[in-house]
Protein backbone atom coordinates (compact mmCIF):
# COMPACT_ATOMS: atom_id res chain seq x y z
CA UNK A 1 0.00 0.00 0.00
CA UNK A 2 1.41 3.37 -1.03
CA UNK A 3 1.59 6.34 1.31
CA UNK A 4 -1.22 7.97 -0.66
CA UNK A 5 -3.38 4.88 -0.16
CA UNK A 6 -2.67 4.91 3.59
CA UNK A 7 -3.58 8.57 3.93
CA UNK A 8 -6.72 8.12 1.82
CA UNK A 9 -7.81 5.20 4.00
CA UNK A 10 -7.17 7.12 7.23
CA UNK A 11 -9.14 10.15 6.07
CA UNK A 12 -12.03 8.10 4.71
CA UNK A 13 -12.25 5.83 7.76
CA UNK A 14 -12.52 8.85 10.04
CA UNK A 15 -14.72 10.88 7.65
CA UNK A 16 -12.26 13.74 7.57
CA UNK A 17 -12.24 14.02 3.78
CA UNK A 18 -14.93 15.98 1.95
CA UNK A 19 -15.99 12.93 -0.07
CA UNK A 20 -17.21 11.26 3.12
CA UNK A 21 -19.84 14.00 3.50
CA UNK A 22 -23.01 13.38 1.50
CA UNK A 23 -24.13 16.81 0.32
CA UNK A 24 -27.68 15.57 -0.28
CA UNK A 25 -28.06 13.80 3.06
CA UNK A 26 -26.66 16.62 5.19
CA UNK A 27 -28.67 19.20 3.24
CA UNK A 28 -31.86 17.20 3.78
CA UNK A 29 -31.13 16.99 7.52
CA UNK A 30 -30.36 20.70 7.62
CA UNK A 31 -33.67 21.61 5.98
CA UNK A 32 -35.57 19.26 8.29
CA UNK A 33 -34.03 20.84 11.39
CA UNK A 34 -34.80 24.31 10.02
CA UNK A 35 -38.46 23.42 9.47
CA UNK A 36 -38.77 21.86 12.93
CA UNK A 37 -37.23 24.97 14.46
CA UNK A 38 -39.72 27.21 12.63
CA UNK A 39 -42.61 24.98 13.71
CA UNK A 40 -41.56 25.10 17.36
CA UNK A 41 -40.73 21.41 17.40
CA UNK A 42 -37.60 19.77 18.79
CA UNK A 43 -34.61 20.92 16.76
CA UNK A 44 -30.92 21.61 17.21
CA UNK A 45 -31.44 24.88 15.30
CA UNK A 46 -33.07 27.72 17.32
CA UNK A 47 -34.38 29.46 14.14
CA UNK A 48 -34.84 32.75 16.00
CA UNK A 49 -37.50 35.14 14.63
CA UNK A 50 -36.04 38.63 14.46
CA UNK A 51 -39.31 40.52 13.70
CA UNK A 52 -37.23 42.34 11.12
CA UNK A 53 -38.74 42.49 7.64
CA UNK A 54 -37.01 43.29 4.38
CA UNK A 55 -39.68 44.81 2.14
CA UNK A 56 -39.55 48.45 3.18
CA UNK A 57 -37.73 50.94 0.98
CA UNK A 58 -35.33 53.45 2.47
CA UNK A 59 -36.24 57.06 1.76
CA UNK A 60 -33.80 59.18 -0.19
CA UNK A 61 -31.75 61.21 2.29
CA UNK A 62 -32.63 59.03 5.29
CA UNK A 63 -30.09 59.10 8.12
CA UNK A 64 -29.47 56.75 11.02
CA UNK A 65 -27.40 56.96 14.17
CA UNK A 66 -25.47 53.70 14.46
CA UNK A 67 -23.94 51.82 17.37
CA UNK A 68 -21.86 48.72 16.65
CA UNK A 69 -21.03 46.68 19.74
CA UNK A 70 -18.82 43.72 19.00
CA UNK A 71 -15.62 42.13 20.27
CA UNK A 72 -13.61 44.66 22.23
CA UNK A 73 -14.58 47.63 20.04
CA UNK A 74 -17.55 49.99 20.23
CA UNK A 75 -18.14 52.03 17.09
CA UNK A 76 -20.56 54.90 16.51
CA UNK A 77 -21.29 56.95 13.40
CA UNK A 78 -23.96 58.50 11.20
CA UNK A 79 -25.06 56.75 8.00
CA UNK A 80 -26.83 58.61 5.17
CA UNK A 81 -28.70 56.91 2.33
CA UNK A 82 -28.91 58.47 -1.13
CA UNK A 83 -30.88 56.92 -3.97
CA UNK A 84 -28.59 55.39 -6.57
CA UNK A 85 -25.49 55.88 -4.40
CA UNK A 86 -23.64 53.86 -1.78
CA UNK A 87 -24.52 54.74 1.83
CA UNK A 88 -22.22 57.36 3.34
CA UNK A 89 -20.63 56.75 6.75
CA UNK A 90 -19.61 59.91 8.58
CA UNK A 91 -18.46 61.10 12.02
CA UNK A 92 -17.02 57.68 12.78
CA UNK A 93 -15.73 57.02 16.30
CA UNK A 94 -14.14 53.86 17.70
CA UNK A 95 -13.62 53.37 21.44
CA UNK A 96 -13.07 50.32 23.68
CA UNK A 97 -16.17 48.23 24.27
CA UNK A 98 -17.56 49.11 27.71
CA UNK A 99 -16.63 46.27 30.03
CA UNK A 100 -13.62 45.17 27.98
CA UNK A 101 -11.15 46.96 30.25
CA UNK A 102 -12.63 45.84 33.55
CA UNK A 103 -16.01 45.00 35.02
CA UNK A 104 -18.64 47.76 34.94
CA UNK A 105 -22.26 48.02 36.11
CA UNK A 106 -25.27 48.58 33.85
CA UNK A 107 -25.53 52.28 34.70
CA UNK A 108 -21.97 52.87 33.50
CA UNK A 109 -22.50 50.64 30.48
CA UNK A 110 -25.49 52.56 29.20
CA UNK A 111 -23.88 55.88 30.09
CA UNK A 112 -20.97 55.06 27.80
CA UNK A 113 -23.39 54.18 25.00
CA UNK A 114 -25.41 57.36 25.50
CA UNK A 115 -22.37 59.63 25.71
CA UNK A 116 -20.96 58.26 22.47
CA UNK A 117 -24.07 58.97 20.40
CA UNK A 118 -25.10 62.30 21.93
CA UNK A 119 -23.17 64.19 19.23
CA UNK A 120 -25.19 62.39 16.54
CA UNK A 121 -28.73 62.79 17.88
CA UNK A 122 -29.31 66.24 16.30
CA UNK A 123 -29.01 64.62 12.85
CA UNK A 124 -31.46 61.70 13.18
CA UNK A 125 -34.00 60.15 15.53
CA UNK A 126 -33.56 56.74 13.88
CA UNK A 127 -31.11 54.58 15.81
CA UNK A 128 -29.72 51.24 14.66
CA UNK A 129 -27.71 49.07 17.05
CA UNK A 130 -25.71 45.99 16.06
CA UNK A 131 -25.24 43.77 19.10
CA UNK A 132 -22.82 40.92 18.40
CA UNK A 133 -23.52 38.93 21.54
CA UNK A 134 -26.29 36.44 22.43
CA UNK A 135 -29.63 38.26 22.77
CA UNK A 136 -33.34 37.56 22.38
CA UNK A 137 -35.12 39.65 19.74
CA UNK A 138 -38.44 41.27 20.65
CA UNK A 139 -41.41 42.28 18.51
CA UNK A 140 -40.75 45.97 19.14
CA UNK A 141 -37.27 45.54 17.56
CA UNK A 142 -35.55 45.74 20.92
CA UNK A 143 -33.53 42.83 22.33
CA UNK A 144 -32.83 41.33 25.75
CA UNK A 145 -29.14 40.81 26.52
CA UNK A 146 -28.51 37.14 27.30
CA UNK A 147 -24.79 37.18 28.00
CA UNK A 148 -21.47 38.67 26.97
CA UNK A 149 -18.36 36.96 25.71
CA UNK A 150 -15.55 36.44 28.19
CA UNK A 151 -13.66 39.56 27.12
CA UNK A 152 -16.56 41.84 28.18
CA UNK A 153 -17.47 42.00 31.85
CA UNK A 154 -20.83 43.64 32.47
CA UNK A 155 -22.95 41.00 34.27
CA UNK A 156 -25.59 43.44 35.51
CA UNK A 157 -26.42 44.35 31.89
CA UNK A 158 -27.53 40.78 31.20
CA UNK A 159 -31.31 40.49 31.25
CA UNK A 160 -31.87 44.15 30.33
CA UNK A 161 -33.52 45.44 27.16
CA UNK A 162 -30.69 47.19 25.42
CA UNK A 163 -32.74 49.61 23.29
CA UNK A 164 -35.15 50.85 25.93
CA UNK A 165 -32.36 51.04 28.52
CA UNK A 166 -30.31 53.24 26.19
CA UNK A 167 -33.25 55.56 25.53
CA UNK A 168 -33.89 55.82 29.28
CA UNK A 169 -30.27 56.77 29.87
CA UNK A 170 -30.46 59.41 27.12
CA UNK A 171 -33.54 60.93 28.79
CA UNK A 172 -31.76 60.88 32.13
CA UNK A 173 -28.98 62.90 30.52
CA UNK A 174 -31.44 65.52 29.27
CA UNK A 175 -32.04 64.38 25.68
CA UNK A 176 -35.52 64.47 24.14
CA UNK A 177 -36.20 60.92 22.89
CA UNK A 178 -39.91 61.39 22.14
CA UNK A 179 -39.33 60.94 18.41
CA UNK A 180 -36.53 58.38 18.70
CA UNK A 181 -36.96 54.83 17.47
CA UNK A 182 -34.34 52.16 17.95
CA UNK A 183 -33.78 48.79 16.29
CA UNK A 184 -31.40 46.16 17.66
CA UNK A 185 -30.02 43.45 15.35
CA UNK A 186 -27.27 40.88 15.70
CA UNK A 187 -24.23 40.79 13.43
CA UNK A 188 -25.57 38.07 11.11
CA UNK A 189 -28.83 39.94 10.52
CA UNK A 190 -26.87 43.16 10.00
CA UNK A 191 -24.71 41.36 7.45
CA UNK A 192 -27.85 40.43 5.52
CA UNK A 193 -29.26 43.94 5.69
CA UNK A 194 -25.97 45.39 4.46
CA UNK A 195 -26.45 43.36 1.28
CA UNK A 196 -29.81 45.06 0.78
CA UNK A 197 -28.15 48.44 1.24
CA UNK A 198 -25.49 47.73 -1.40
CA UNK A 199 -27.61 45.70 -3.84
CA UNK A 200 -31.13 47.14 -3.73
CA UNK A 201 -32.26 45.99 -7.20
CA UNK A 202 -32.43 42.89 -9.42
CA UNK A 203 -31.95 40.50 -6.51
CA UNK A 204 -34.25 37.63 -5.52
CA UNK A 205 -33.20 37.52 -1.86
CA UNK A 206 -30.37 38.14 0.58
CA UNK A 207 -28.33 36.02 2.99
CA UNK A 208 -25.97 37.06 5.75
CA UNK A 209 -23.31 34.42 6.39
CA UNK A 210 -20.59 34.70 9.01
CA UNK A 211 -17.66 32.31 9.15
CA UNK A 212 -15.13 33.65 11.58
CA UNK A 213 -14.53 32.61 15.16
CA UNK A 214 -18.07 31.23 15.00
CA UNK A 215 -20.56 30.22 12.33
CA UNK A 216 -24.05 31.51 11.56
CA UNK A 217 -26.42 32.40 8.75
CA UNK A 218 -29.51 34.61 8.44
CA UNK A 219 -32.04 34.43 5.62
CA UNK A 220 -35.48 35.79 4.69
CA UNK A 221 -38.45 33.54 5.43
CA UNK A 222 -42.11 33.74 4.46
CA UNK A 223 -43.95 34.68 7.66
CA UNK A 224 -46.54 31.97 6.98
CA UNK A 225 -43.84 29.36 7.48
CA UNK A 226 -42.90 30.60 10.96
CA UNK A 227 -45.56 28.64 12.76
CA UNK A 228 -44.20 29.04 16.28
CA UNK A 229 -45.26 32.69 16.35
CA UNK A 230 -48.40 34.57 15.35
CA UNK A 231 -47.12 37.41 13.24
CA UNK A 232 -48.44 39.48 10.36
CA UNK A 233 -46.45 40.65 7.38
CA UNK A 234 -44.97 39.05 4.30
CA UNK A 235 -41.42 38.19 5.31
CA UNK A 236 -39.05 38.11 8.25
CA UNK A 237 -35.34 37.59 8.71
CA UNK A 238 -34.55 34.40 10.60
CA UNK A 239 -31.39 34.06 12.66
CA UNK A 240 -30.79 30.33 12.30
CA UNK A 241 -27.84 29.97 14.73
CA UNK A 242 -26.68 27.35 12.24
CA UNK A 243 -23.51 26.51 14.13
CA UNK A 244 -25.73 24.62 16.56
CA UNK A 245 -26.66 21.96 13.98
CA UNK A 246 -26.34 18.54 15.64
CA UNK A 247 -24.50 17.00 12.72
CA UNK A 248 -23.14 13.46 12.72
CA UNK A 249 -19.56 13.23 11.48
CA UNK A 250 -16.76 10.74 12.12
CA UNK A 251 -15.20 9.04 15.14
CA UNK A 252 -12.40 11.57 15.47
CA UNK A 253 -14.92 14.42 15.49
CA UNK A 254 -16.87 12.65 18.22
CA UNK A 255 -13.70 12.23 20.27
CA UNK A 256 -12.71 15.85 19.64
CA UNK A 257 -16.13 17.16 20.72
CA UNK A 258 -15.75 15.38 24.06
CA UNK A 259 -12.70 17.53 24.73
CA UNK A 260 -14.61 20.79 24.21
CA UNK A 261 -16.44 22.75 26.88
CA UNK A 262 -19.95 21.75 25.75
CA UNK A 263 -19.60 18.47 23.81
CA UNK A 264 -23.26 18.26 22.79
CA UNK A 265 -23.60 21.78 21.39
CA UNK A 266 -22.44 23.69 18.29
CA UNK A 267 -21.20 20.60 16.49
CA UNK A 268 -21.31 22.09 13.01
CA UNK A 269 -19.43 25.15 14.27
CA UNK A 270 -16.74 22.89 15.72
CA UNK A 271 -16.13 21.34 12.30
CA UNK A 272 -16.01 24.61 10.38
CA UNK A 273 -15.23 27.76 12.39
CA UNK A 274 -11.93 29.44 13.11
CA UNK A 275 -12.18 28.90 16.85
CA UNK A 276 -11.91 25.13 16.32
CA UNK A 277 -10.27 24.25 12.99
CA UNK A 278 -6.70 24.48 14.29
CA UNK A 279 -7.49 22.44 17.40
CA UNK A 280 -9.30 19.83 15.31
CA UNK A 281 -6.34 19.60 12.93
CA UNK A 282 -3.96 19.08 15.86
CA UNK A 283 -6.17 16.31 17.21
CA UNK A 284 -6.35 14.54 13.83
CA UNK A 285 -2.60 14.87 13.26
CA UNK A 286 -1.90 13.26 16.63
CA UNK A 287 -4.21 10.38 15.76
CA UNK A 288 -2.36 9.97 12.46
CA UNK A 289 0.88 9.75 14.44
CA UNK A 290 -0.57 6.86 16.44
CA UNK A 291 -1.34 5.11 13.15
CA UNK A 292 2.28 5.46 12.04
CA UNK A 293 1.61 7.92 9.23
CA UNK A 294 4.33 10.28 10.47
CA UNK A 295 7.98 9.66 11.28
CA UNK A 296 9.18 9.47 14.87
CA UNK A 297 11.17 12.67 14.34
CA UNK A 298 8.14 14.66 13.23
CA UNK A 299 6.04 13.30 16.09
CA UNK A 300 8.65 14.49 18.58
CA UNK A 301 8.87 17.96 17.02
CA UNK A 302 5.11 18.44 16.69
CA UNK A 303 4.68 19.08 20.41
CA UNK A 304 6.51 22.39 19.94
CA UNK A 305 3.62 23.86 17.91
CA UNK A 306 0.87 22.93 20.37
CA UNK A 307 -1.72 24.35 20.59
CA UNK A 308 -2.05 24.56 16.81
CA UNK A 309 -3.93 27.64 15.66
CA UNK A 310 -6.14 27.91 12.60
CA UNK A 311 -3.78 30.62 11.35
CA UNK A 312 -0.71 28.35 11.52
CA UNK A 313 -2.67 25.50 9.96
CA UNK A 314 -3.57 27.75 7.04
CA UNK A 315 -0.04 29.08 6.66
CA UNK A 316 1.22 25.56 5.94
CA UNK A 317 -1.12 25.22 2.98
CA UNK A 318 -0.23 28.69 1.71
CA UNK A 319 3.56 28.38 2.09
CA UNK A 320 4.62 24.81 2.93
CA UNK A 321 8.30 25.62 2.29
CA UNK A 322 8.50 28.78 4.41
CA UNK A 323 10.49 27.72 7.45
CA UNK A 324 9.67 30.99 9.21
CA UNK A 325 6.28 29.41 9.91
CA UNK A 326 5.82 26.86 12.67
CA UNK A 327 4.73 23.77 10.72
CA UNK A 328 7.16 23.94 7.75
CA UNK A 329 9.99 24.40 10.26
CA UNK A 330 9.36 21.02 11.90
CA UNK A 331 8.80 18.96 8.74
CA UNK A 332 11.91 16.90 7.99
CA UNK A 333 10.94 14.57 5.16
CA UNK A 334 8.82 14.74 2.03
CA UNK A 335 6.62 11.95 3.34
CA UNK A 336 5.84 13.86 6.53
CA UNK A 337 5.19 17.00 4.48
CA UNK A 338 2.80 15.12 2.19
CA UNK A 339 0.77 13.58 5.02
CA UNK A 340 0.58 16.87 6.90
CA UNK A 341 -0.62 18.73 3.81
CA UNK A 342 -3.26 16.12 2.98
CA UNK A 343 -4.72 16.14 6.50
CA UNK A 344 -4.90 19.92 6.81
CA UNK A 345 -6.21 20.44 3.29
CA UNK A 346 -8.87 17.77 3.85
CA UNK A 347 -10.10 19.50 7.00
CA UNK A 348 -10.34 22.81 5.12
CA UNK A 349 -12.06 21.26 2.09
CA UNK A 350 -14.58 19.48 4.31
CA UNK A 351 -15.26 22.77 6.12
CA UNK A 352 -15.88 24.41 2.74
CA UNK A 353 -18.33 21.70 1.75
CA UNK A 354 -20.20 22.01 5.05
CA UNK A 355 -20.29 25.80 4.65
CA UNK A 356 -21.75 25.33 1.16
CA UNK A 357 -24.42 23.03 2.59
CA UNK A 358 -25.26 25.64 5.22
CA UNK A 359 -25.65 28.35 2.57
CA UNK A 360 -27.58 26.05 0.23
CA UNK A 361 -30.08 25.19 2.95
CA UNK A 362 -30.80 28.88 3.50
CA UNK A 363 -31.17 29.56 -0.23
CA UNK A 364 -33.61 26.66 -0.64
CA UNK A 365 -35.55 27.62 2.49
CA UNK A 366 -35.94 31.15 1.13
CA UNK A 367 -37.23 29.69 -2.17
CA UNK A 368 -35.10 32.12 -4.13
CA UNK A 369 -32.37 32.27 -6.77
CA UNK A 370 -34.35 30.60 -9.56
CA UNK A 371 -33.76 33.36 -12.10
CA UNK A 372 -30.10 33.79 -13.10
CA UNK A 373 -30.79 37.48 -13.76
CA UNK A 374 -31.84 37.92 -10.13
CA UNK A 375 -29.47 35.88 -7.97
CA UNK A 376 -29.43 35.51 -4.22
CA UNK A 377 -26.86 37.95 -2.84
CA UNK A 378 -24.82 36.27 -0.12
CA UNK A 379 -22.90 38.73 2.01
CA UNK A 380 -20.10 36.75 3.65
CA UNK A 381 -18.21 38.14 6.62
CA UNK A 382 -15.50 36.64 8.81
CA UNK A 383 -11.72 36.44 8.70
CA UNK A 384 -11.72 32.63 8.80
CA UNK A 385 -13.60 32.48 5.51
CA UNK A 386 -11.29 34.85 3.70
CA UNK A 387 -7.97 34.15 5.43
CA UNK A 388 -7.99 30.34 5.67
CA UNK A 389 -6.20 28.90 2.67
CA UNK A 390 -8.60 27.63 -0.03
CA UNK A 391 -11.69 27.80 2.18
CA UNK A 392 -13.40 30.43 0.05
CA UNK A 393 -12.56 28.51 -3.15
CA UNK A 394 -13.83 25.19 -1.80
CA UNK A 395 -17.07 26.77 -0.56
CA UNK A 396 -17.85 28.40 -3.90
CA UNK A 397 -16.91 25.22 -5.78
CA UNK A 398 -19.42 23.13 -3.85
CA UNK A 399 -22.04 25.87 -4.11
CA UNK A 400 -21.69 25.99 -7.87
CA UNK A 401 -21.68 22.21 -8.23
CA UNK A 402 -24.59 21.38 -5.96
CA UNK A 403 -26.67 24.55 -5.74
CA UNK A 404 -26.41 25.91 -9.28
CA UNK A 405 -25.65 22.92 -11.54
CA UNK A 406 -27.78 20.36 -9.70
CA UNK A 407 -30.58 22.52 -8.26
CA UNK A 408 -30.75 25.49 -10.61
CA UNK A 409 -30.27 28.17 -7.97
CA UNK A 410 -28.14 31.19 -8.76
CA UNK A 411 -26.10 33.17 -6.28
CA UNK A 412 -23.64 36.03 -5.96
CA UNK A 413 -21.15 35.99 -3.09
CA UNK A 414 -20.06 39.45 -1.96
CA UNK A 415 -17.90 40.98 0.74
CA UNK A 416 -19.27 44.29 2.02
CA UNK A 417 -17.04 46.41 4.22
CA UNK A 418 -18.55 47.74 7.44
CA UNK A 419 -21.48 45.32 7.19
CA UNK A 420 -22.52 45.61 10.86
CA UNK A 421 -22.70 49.40 10.56
CA UNK A 422 -24.62 49.44 7.27
CA UNK A 423 -26.98 46.69 8.43
CA UNK A 424 -27.74 48.42 11.71
CA UNK A 425 -28.37 51.69 9.82
CA UNK A 426 -30.84 50.14 7.44
CA UNK A 427 -32.67 48.47 10.36
CA UNK A 428 -32.86 51.82 12.11
CA UNK A 429 -34.38 53.48 9.05
CA UNK A 430 -36.81 50.68 8.21
CA UNK A 431 -38.56 50.25 11.54
Describe this structure in words.
By secondary structure, the chain is an alpha/beta fold. Helix content is about 40%, strand content about 15%. It has 15 helices and 13 strands. It has a 6-stranded mixed beta sheet with strand order 1-11-10-9-12-13, sandwiched between helices. It has a 5-stranded mixed beta sheet with strand order 4-3-2-5-8, with helices on both faces. A two-stranded antiparallel sheet has the order 6-7. β3 (about 75-80) and β4 (about 90-95) form a beta hairpin. It is globular and about 75 Å long. The mean pLDDT is about 95.
Short description:
By secondary structure, the protein is an alpha/beta fold. The protein has helices spanning 3-13, 23-39, 106-117, 162-172, 187-198, 251-258, 267-272, 274-290, 296-302, 310-318, 326-330, 334-365, 383-387, 391-405, 419-430; strands at 48-49, 63-70, 73-80, 88-96, 126-131, 135-137, 143-145, 181-185, 205-211, 215-222, 235-239, 376-381, 411-414.
What's the arrangement of secondary structure elements?
Layout lengths: L2 H11 L9 H17 L8 E2 L13 E8 L2 E8 L7 E9 L9 H12 L8 E6 L3 E3 L5 E3 L16 H11 L8 E5 L1 H12 L6 E7 L3 E8 L12 E5 L11 H8 L8 H6 L1 H17 L5 H7 L7 H9 L7 H5 L3 H32 L10 E6 L1 H5 L3 H15 L5 E4 L4 H12 L1
Parallel strand pairs: 2-5, 5-8, 9-12, 12-13
Antiparallel strand pairs: 1-11, 2-3, 3-4, 6-7, 9-10, 10-11
Low-confidence stretches: none
The ordered H/E elements are HHEEEEHEEEHEHEEEHHHHHHHEHHEH
Residue fraction in strands:
15-25%
Overall average residue pLDDT:
95
Alpha carbon gyration radius: 23 Å
Q: Approximately how much helix is present in the residues?
A: 40-55%
The largest sheet is: 6 strands, mixed
- Oligomeric description of these chains: single chain
The first-to-last residue Cα distance is 64 Å
Number of strands: 13
Label the structural class. alpha/beta
As laid out across the biggest beta sheet, the strand order is 1-11-10-9-12-13
Amino acid sequence: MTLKDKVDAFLAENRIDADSISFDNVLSFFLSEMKNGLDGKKSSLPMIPTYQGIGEEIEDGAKAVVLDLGGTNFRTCLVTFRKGEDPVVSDFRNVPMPGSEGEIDKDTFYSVLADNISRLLPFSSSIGLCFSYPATSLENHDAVVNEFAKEVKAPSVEGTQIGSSLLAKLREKGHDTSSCKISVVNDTVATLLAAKARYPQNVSSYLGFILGTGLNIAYIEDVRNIRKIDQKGSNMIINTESGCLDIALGPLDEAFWKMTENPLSHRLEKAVSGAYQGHLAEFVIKEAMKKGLFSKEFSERFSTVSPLSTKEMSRYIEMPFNNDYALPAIVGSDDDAYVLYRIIDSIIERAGKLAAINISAAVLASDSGKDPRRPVVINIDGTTYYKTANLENYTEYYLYKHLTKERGRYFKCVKIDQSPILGAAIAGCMN
